[in-house]
Specification:
It contains nine helices and five strands. By secondary structure, it is of the alpha+beta class.
Length: 285
């Protein structure tokens, strides 16, 4: 009889302990999901404020009538939030640096467009005075351009400039393999077109070993733009190594460094990949 009572007492206590564990587990789960909901409300309000909409309750879209009542309290910034914001402010470029980079890049891009027009005009075969219509068509035909376009690469294209970054990179695409003659022609024409574009003074330096032109501003903060010449023809030829037609084609004697041009093409592909991936990620936010 006594053993029977002890056994019943044992099982009763065990059931109470199990019931207590279950209740504590439910309580912890409730606290967890309540905290997750508050976090969701908090970040939803932050996104609405960033988009220019007033903070609202979960599930209320812009333009819809929001229910009246007190808004959920804003979660106070934690020590981690303040630490991250302080670090971000320390590495983010100053307003002067951002303005200087934007200025020198825009001036360089506009000057390169004028250089492209100038080289196209010089290389264009002379037409008769009576063929004015053909002359207009030749001016509009971009297939005859030696310089196809200029692209931003590196941290400039990705928007990842840090405080203290003084050098940004551009890639100038050519119709054919870039040569030293073409590089010198661009370097000779570029100062004239920069003067026509802006009254600010820039220093232009031609660097044939790097297949690049370096532009440096004279005003503080001094910024530098490195323009690397390349052409898709180099990559196509590199993919067709071993082909008979690729062996028959001879490079010009002053063709620029092949590896530098391939690195510029790789930087261009990487910048495009980064921009596409960034757009895809933003669609899920």
């Amino acid at each position: 009889m006594r053993k029977q009572m002890q056994k019943e007492e044992y099982w009763r206590r065990r059931e109470e302990e199990e019931r207590w564990r279950m209740e504590m587990r439910r309580y912890e789960e409730d606290i967890y999901w309540r905290r997750m909901e508050e976090e969701h409300h908090y970040w939803d309000d932050r996104r609405r404020l960033a988009d220019g909409y007033p903070p609202g309750l979960l599930g209320v879209r812009p333009g819809m009538m929001q229910p009246q009542g007190p808004l959920p309290p804003r979660r106070p910034d934690s020590s981690d939030d303040r630490y991250v914001m302080t670090k971000h402010a320390a590495i983010y470029p100053t307003e002067e640096e951002l303005q200087a980079v934007q200025k020198i890049v825009s001036h360089t891009e506009r000057a390169l467009k004028l250089v492209s027009d100038c080289i196209t005009e010089q290389d264009k075969p002379k037409n008769k005075e009576d063929d004015k219509k053909d002359l207009v068509k030749d001016r509009r035909d971009d297939s005859q351009r030696a310089l196809k376009g200029v692209m931003r690469v590196g941290v400039l294209a990705k928007g990842l400039l840090l405080r203290g970054d003084k050098n940004v990179n551009l890639v100038l695409l050519c119709a054919e393999k870039p040569t030293g003659i073409l590089l010198n022609r661009i370097a000779d024409n570029l100062p004239k077109q920069l003067v026509a574009t802006t009254p600010e003074k820039y220093e232009v330096k031609c660097c044939i070993p790097d297949s690049a032109i370096i532009i440096t501003s004279n005003m503080e903060p001094k910024m530098q733009v490195t323009i690397t010449l390349t052409s898709p023809v180099i990559r196509e030829e590199n993919m067709g190594i071993g082909d008979v037609t690729s062996v028959m084609v001879k490079d010009p004697p002053d063709v620029l460094d092949r590896q530098k041009c391939l690195d510029a093409l790789a930087a261009l592909r990487h910048a495009k990949w980064f921009q596409v991936r960034n757009i895809i990620l933003l669609t899920y936010l």
